[in-house]
Design goal:
Blueprint lengths: L4 E2 L5 H6 L4 E3 L11 E8 L7 E6 L14 E3 L12 E4 L2 E8 L11 E9 L4 E8 L6 E8 L4 H5 L2 E8 L7 E7 L8 E6 L8 E4 L1 E9 L5 E4 L3 E3 L4 E8 L8 E6 L4 E4 L5 E8 L13 E6 L8 E5 L7 E4 L1 E9 L5 E10 L4 E12 L19 E11 L8 E8 L8 E7 L10 E6 L2 E8 L1 E11 L2 E12 L6 E7 L7 E7 L4 E3 L1
Parallel strand pairs: 3-9, 11-18, 21-27, 29-35
Antiparallel strand pairs: 1-13, 2-10, 3-6, 4-5, 4-7, 7-8, 9-10, 11-14, 12-13, 12-15, 15-16, 15-17, 18-19, 19-20, 21-24, 22-23, 22-25, 25-26, 27-28, 29-32, 30-31, 30-33, 33-34, 35-36, 36-37
């Protein structure tokens, strides 16, 4: 490694190099230059939907009025993501950040949250960083020289900067070690205040571990996994807020010219909870719509006890890892499912959906499940299974994720389609719809609105409505699960259950 500072040394060199290249929005007045440069948007606004970047020579002029007028709106960027480097002719531009509040992505129809100017300089990346709330956005523009040096390939080097975007506002110390070392052997890369971008350092291509402490402290608050750097690339390690289940306040993004990869604290805890979708059935004579969950090697007592049908448990915090899960009846502790693998990844929050599935028994394997031809299935077995789904970490206020979980078992269909119908739409014209197969889940992102929701399936070529209800999404709504289930007591034989991916259930 090169240019790193031992933990015991002072930080004068690193701090001096960090008082750098960022400009406040609207303060870039340099003259146009020839050649080409780059721009990219990095969205770190916690409650923002996808943000669209528009680059324009003059936002006050319609692009159709002048064939030589440059104007382009780029793909919307979700929270935690960034554009690949966008190549532009070096000159002054106006730009705006906006979100899609209607069906159209035309620049004139987007809801603008910020406008200003920037200058694309030759061989320089203008990185626009959006942070804070979309209601009061913070926008920074960082000018980063492009590095493309032959020596990097010759000597197997790569380039790295550090950007502190943790919203707590405190300064941090950033350390680095090779993958076969610990924090005791780590070297100090630098100390960085909020929104501060470091100078570039060249390092040997290798696998590295990164550590974060409070400024001047030796208490490690974040440790990354081993991260490979195998190319002579230009990277920015971004320190940002942790939105996962772990107790570390930090997470880390590795940003290259074309991708952003997020890393969590390797010591981060995980959370999971369970939803009971198992109704009473003749084939489960000892089950009374209450079950308990046991994790082998964790506790002799149930980790989730007496979970009733149609209910979701509280969150359970666990060390990340692989567990053996048993499910028993709630009262007599009789086994319903044993030795089921439950894999919990650090910093994640998941919901385990427990459901039953009927199987027709064919003891003689002749393909006939009605041996006496009385029109009744001779024997049915019921087994329990689980479907594990990651809970959304989004906190957006203008759009919301609905994760649809299809637990409907039917001889007539294996797929359901959920339509979210707005005023002046029908099922046939509804913009928002999602097909979900049995024992699968799929997400859809909806804008704030009032929807009539239809769950539809095909039976013998005809469309049948399994369930319908109204859904209102607004700025106070949370990300939701929508569970499709069998229900012999419902008029159609099916029901839907909606509950927040972080809160309690409500049945429709």
């Amino acid at each position: 490694m090169k240019k790193l500072t031992p933990k015991t040394n002072t930080l004068k060199t690193c701090l001096a190099s960090s008082l750098l290249l960022f400009t406040l929005f609207g303060c870039d007045d340099s003259e146009s230059t020839s050649g080409e440069g780059y721009v990219k948007l990095y969205n770190l606004s916690d409650d923002a939907p996808a943000i669209y970047l528009t680059i324009d020579e003059d936002l006050s002029i319609e692009s159709d009025d002048d064939n030589d007028h440059y104007e382009s709106t780029y793909t919307g960027i979700a929270n935690g993501s960034a554009h690949s480097n966008i190549t532009l002719t070096s000159q002054a531009y106006e730009f705006q950040l906006a979100w899609q509040d209607d069906d159209s992505t035309d620049v004139a129809d987007l809801a603008v949250i910020y406008e200003s100017t920037l200058t694309i300089a030759e061989d320089t990346i203008q990185m626009v960083v959006l942070s804070g709330s979309i209601l009061s956005p913070q926008v920074m523009v960082y000018s980063i020289p492009e590095i493309d040096e032959d020596d990097d390939d010759t000597y197997d080097l790569f380039n790295m900067r550090v950007l502190n975007m943790h919203s707590g506002g405190e300064a941090i110390d950033f350390y680095i070690s090779t993958e076969n070392e610990t924090f005791n052997e780590a070297m100090l890369f630098g100390q960085f205040a909020y929104q501060e971008l470091s100078d570039n350092q060249k390092l040997d291509q290798d696998d590295y571990i990164f550590y974060i402490t409070a400024a001047g402290s030796d208490e490690v608050l974040f440790t990354s996994a081993s991260i490979p750097f195998s190319y002579s690339s230009q990277n920015i390690m971004v320190i940002k807020d942790n939105k996962g289940a772990g107790s570390s306040p930090y997470s880390l993004d590795k940003m290259s010219d074309s991708a952003v990869i997020e890393y969590s604290d390797t010591e981060a805890e995980a959370q999971f909870r369970a939803y009971n979708s198992v109704a009473n059935q003749e084939e489960l004579p000892n089950y009374n719509e209450v079950l308990s969950l046991h994790l082998n090697g964790v506790s002799d007592e149930p980790i989730i006890a007496d979970l009733a049908y149609g209910e979701v448990s509280a969150d359970l915090v666990l060390t990340s890892g692989d567990y053996s899960l048993d499910i028993t009846t709630g009262d007599e502790n009789l086994p319903l499912l044993t030795n089921h693998l439950l894999s919990i990844t650090e910093n994640t929050n998941k919901t385990v959906f427990i459901y039953s599935e009927q199987t027709y028994v064919d003891d003689d394997n002749d393909g006939d499940i009605d041996e006496n031809n009385d029109g009744i299935i001779d024997e049915i077995e019921v087994d329990l299974y689980t479907l594990t789904v990651s809970n959304s970490l989004l906190t957006t206020i203008y759009t919301h994720e609905v994760e649809i979980v299809n637990l409907i078992q039917s001889d007539d269909f294996s797929q359901a389609v959920v339509y979210f119908v707005r005023q002046n739409e029908t099922i046939e014209t509804a913009l928002y719809n999602k097909e979900v197969n049995y024992k699968n889940n799929s997400s859809i992102y909806l804008k704030n609105n009032t929807y009539q929701v239809f769950v539809v399936a095909k039976k013998n070529g005809s469309s049948i409505i399994l369930n319908t209800f109204d859904l209102i999404l607004d700025e106070d709504s949370t990300e939701q699960f929508l569970v499709l289930e069998n229900d012999e007591n419902a008029p159609t034989g099916f029901k839907t259950t909606m509950f927040s991916q972080t809160l309690a259930t409500t049945e429709e």
